[in-house]
Amino acid sequence: MEEKTNALLKATPEQVLYAKILEKGMYLGLLVLFITYVLYVLGVIHPYIPLNKLSGYWSMNVHEYLEHTGINAGWAWIGMLNYGDFLNFIGVVILSGVTIICYAAIVPTLLKNKDIIYAILAVLEVIILGAAASGILAAGH
Predict the structure, then answer these.
(1) Interaxial angle between packed helices 89-112 and 13-41, expressed in degrees from 0 to 180 and rounded to the nearest 10
(2) Model's pTM, two decimal places?
(3) Residue 62 burial (C-beta neighbours within 10 Å; 0-12, 13-18, 19+)
(4) b/e per residue, 96-133, with b = 16+ CB within 10 A?
(5) 3-state DSSP assignment of residue 114
């Protein structure tokens, strides 16, 4: 009985692959976040919003904040990576995007194992997450 239970608890090849990619992506994202935070805090790269003015924006809603700062919504931050307070977005993108990579990576294994339904679901997950990340599905800010 115990052997049967242990066999049921064994991870499948696609689960192991997903976990390995997720682990590496998580460590990479955290490393990038740490490095960009240090660059920001030490003032190596100057921020778009000066630190002494930052608290003045805390009470604003998103619309007011964007209007007062002149920052554009959406993917406009990519053009502002020369500022320390936007550079850390790279780590956030890595952390949030690694799931898409994980799902895409397991599709060949699922197809090889003839898990067609799971392969279709993984492809749909990649499409939906990719569309959401692209801003196609965005509403408002």
Answers:
(1) 170
(2) 0.80
(3) exposed
(4) eebbbbbbbbbbebbeeeebeebbeebeebbeebeeeb
(5) coil
Look-up of token digits 């499948």: 12
- Does any domain span residue 26? yes
| 46 SS3 class | coil
pLDDT tens by residue, 66-119: 999 999 888 889 999 999 999 999 999 999 999 999 999 999 999 999 999 999
Please report whether residue 140 resides in a domain: no
Own/partner pairs, 49-52, CB within 8 angstroms, 24+ separation:
49/85
Token pair in block for residue 49 = 């919003």
- pLDDT tens, residue by residue, 104-134: 999 999 999 999 999 999 999 999 999 988 8
Q: Which of 22, 15, 16, 13 lies closest to 101 in space, CA to CA?
A: 22
Total number of domains constituting the chain? 1
Instruction: Tell me if 59 is assigned to some domain.
Output: yes
